[in-house]
């Protein structure tokens, strides 16, 4: 019986190895800039998109920043800006904008991707098997359980085009899922804001809430 259990365990390990592609860690690179909550710029390699997650959009030009967008950028900056990090690739190496996709790991072994999710400043968007997917999902469950960041009860303000994520506690209550609108909002703008969602990286079906950005994420 013990021999049979050993064979089953070994087979499961082999299947897991074949299903999840191996991670490849880079040499140390210096983070020159933090663009937003899920994008950085590093020496020699350029733009890097944090793998498996999506942070609220800061907004460009006339676009309004989503709630927690600046908090996510500030948190990422505190973790990696002007510091040496290693990049772990896992599966696809680049997104459609030719940005490198990677986990960003600090010198003391902390994965910035996981930290942002655990603090409620990013959500898990990965749809393919990843080596850190379970870790990311556990971090997201923790953020929801303790109502951190975007999973909290109190909305930070009136931001059109942003739909609040539904935490387990929110689903039990009969309430609006989006942030309250300002009194000056027109019926047309409310309908447009509620319907707005990303066609690539921030679709509601993957995350439970949406941003007004069209940037893809894995």
- List segments where confidence is low: pLDDT < 50 over at least 5 consecutive residues: 1-22, 155-163, 170-214
CATH class: Mainly Beta
Number of helices: 7
Question: Biggest sheet, in brief?
Answer: 5 strands, mixed, barrel
Give the overall silhouette: globular
Percentage of residues assigned to helices: 25-40%
Strand order of the largest sheet: 2-3-4-7-6
First-to-last CA distance: 42 Å
Number of strands: 8
Name the average pLDDT. Answer: 74
Give an overview of the whole structure:
By secondary structure, this protein is an alpha+beta fold. A hairpin with a 3-residue loop joins strand 3 (39-42) and strand 4 (46-50). 31% of the residues lie in helices and 17% in strands. Helix 3 (112-118) runs parallel beside helix 4 (133-145). The protein has a single domain (20-207), classed as Beta Barrel (OB fold (Dihydrolipoamide Acetyltransferase, E2P)), CATH 2.40.50. A 5-stranded mixed barrel has the order 2-3-4-7-6. Strands 5-8 form a two-stranded antiparallel sheet. Mean pLDDT is 74; it is low at 1-22, 155-163 and 170-214.
